[in-house]
Amino acid sequence: MQCVICKQGTTQPGQVTVMLERGECIVIFSTWGNLLKLWRILFK
Fold first, then answer.
1. Count of CB atoms within 10 A of residue 5's CB?
2. Which residues are paired to 10 by β-bridges?
3. What is the C-alpha to C-alpha distance for residues 29 and 18, in angstroms, rounded to an integer?
4. Is the full-model pTM beyond 0.85?
5. What does the DSSP assignment read for 1-44?
6. Nearest to 11 by CA among 1, 19, 26
7. Maximum Cα–Cα distance for the chain, whole Å?
8. pLDDT tens per residue across span 1-44
9. Residue 33 has what pLDDT?
10. What is the C-alpha separation between 35 and 41, in angstroms, rounded?
11. Could you tell me the residue ranges of all domains in the chain?
């Protein structure tokens, strides 16, 4: 399956966290477990 974001890479089973930023808007795509880890890092 092709990557839905870059259209060049291929996907594999697993987990990933993707953070997209434009101006003041930040969008995070993640599994719940990875999102909790990211939250702890950002808001220590």
1. 10
2. 2
3. 5
4. no
5. -B-TTTSSSB--SS---EEEEETTEEEEE--HHHHHHHHHHHT-
6. 1
7. 37
8. 777 778 888 888 877 778 889 898 888 887 777 777 777 877 86
9. 74
10. 10
11. 13-44
